[in-house]
Design a protein that fits this description.
The protein contains twelve helices and eleven strands. By secondary structure, it is α/β, with parallel strands linked by helices. The chain has a single domain (about 15-380), classed as Alpha/Beta hydrolase fold, catalytic domain (Rossmann fold). The strands form two sheets. The chain has a nine-stranded mixed β-sheet with strand order 1-2-5-7-6-8-9-10-11, sandwiched between helices. Strands 3-4 form a two-stranded antiparallel sheet. The termini are far apart.
Length: about 375
């Protein structure tokens, strides 16, 4: 079983660690992911995990493409591929079509979620208890996946999470999921899934790959410490104080520009919940105040804070962009929360309901009708 990849560097780059892969020395990929196509094949890789869950590990999605990532801290590489771990509630038959949550991990981790780990209890346990299936994916990030210190590879896709949505929808019968009710949850690097969810539908009726004919759209997105833009000019002009532009240009000389959730947002996009541990620089939440970069030693002496790719200004800008498109938006379209204590990033601080309740409230009508009595009570749905 693959280990989590632990961060190993602390430097001026630490504020932007969400965009860089931190890899542990000597860690390489396990055996290539398992390409399957039938329920019996999936069943052969499925095992009980305690009394509450079943899990099938290291299953390929899409083409199972391999890639390398490299830490800026050292010469060692990590070989990864398009794989996922798949969880279902042990109490529900495999024939029952369940809504699906796709999890995209933060930097410094892999798709593997140890059962005794903190994220397992925050993510998998409540999802299964509420009757969701859960898919934890490995994915390329166009910035994190570049080979640091070498010429950037501008062909690194930004679509792996969207492709996972399409593949799961294509294989919904094999997985026992409801393809009309697929959701994305991600943190830091994993909020690339937010951009994937807001981008145009990747469905292509002419594709030679059957899964790519399916929709890449999802029902809702839950994003923690979200990075909503990877466009250099947009970041510079919107989030960086002009006095820090020279330092920004030097630091991001080879900055990838895979896209921007801010540029993609439309009124037809799915509901979004966003959680940040800090407040935006404008307490009134009416504008985005550009920030200075921290000093080279990582210190920040500015009272409003310093720029980094986890700053809540990113979420605020996305929200303001949507409000400009739709001044009469329903309050439920954007569920924003700032100054959220770490222990409540995946639990509503007021109601103590888990993040998956946000998805339960955004199911299709048919999906809502299939909710268990426990889920209805736990999430306060009708």
């Amino acid at each position: 079983m693959r280990q989590n990849i632990q961060p190993r560097f602390r430097s001026f780059l630490s504020p932007i660690c969400g965009l860089l892969l931190a890899a542990a020395s000597g860690i390489a990929a396990a055996e290539p992911c398992r390409k399957i196509g039938t329920e019996s094949e999936l069943s052969s890789y499925t095992q009980a995990q305690g009394a509450q869950a079943t899990v099938a590990r290291d299953i390929c999605y899409a083409e199972g493409t391999e890639w390398n990532e490299k830490s800026p801290a050292g010469p060692y590489d990590v070989t990864l591929d398009q794989r996922f771990d798949f969880y279902r509630p042990a109490s529900l038959p495999s024939s029952q079509r369940l809504p699906l949550i796709i999890w995209a991990h933060p930097n410094g981790m892999t798709d593997n979620l140890p059962q005794q780990g903190d994220l397992y209890s925050k993510l998998v346990t409540p999802a299964l208890a509420l009757g969701f299936a859960f898919m934890s994916v490995e994915f390329r990030h166009p910035v994190a996946s570049q080979r640091y210190g070498q010429p950037p590879d501008l062909d690194i896709p930004n679509t792996d999470i969207a492709r996972a949505v399409q593949w799961a929808r294509h294989r919904s019968g094999m997985l026992g999921i409801d393809g009309t009710n697929i959701f994305i949850v991600g943190q830091s690097r994993g909020t690339l899934g937010l951009m994937n969810a807001l981008s145009k539908n990747l469905a292509d009726d002419q594709s030679p790959f059957p899964y790519q004919t399916k929709s890449s759209r999802v029902r809702a997105v839950y994003a923690v410490q979200a990075q909503t833009s990877y466009e250099k000019d947009q970041v510079k002009q919107t989030f960086i104080h002009p006095d820090s532009w020279p330092a920004f240009e030097q630091l991001y000389a080879n900055f990838h520009q895979p896209g921007s959730a801010i540029s993609e947002i439309t009124t037809d996009d799915p509901p979004i919940a966003m959680r940040y541990e800090r407040m935006p620089t404008d307490p009134s939440q009416q504008t985005v105040v550009p920030l200075h970069l921290p000093a080279q030693n990582g210190s920040c002496s500015y009272p409003e804070g310093c720029f980094d790719f986890h700053h809540p200004n990113f979420g605020l800008k996305l929200h303001l962009a949507f409000k400009a498109l739709s001044p009469t938006q329903p309050a439920s379209k954007f569920d924003m929360a700032y100054n959220v204590p770490t222990e409540f990033l995946y639990v509503d601080q007021a109601s103590n309901r888990p993040y998956a309740c946000f998805f339960a409230k955004n199911l299709t009508l048919e999906g809502s009708a299939n909710l268990s009595a426990y889920t209805v009570e736990a999430c306060g749905t009708k």
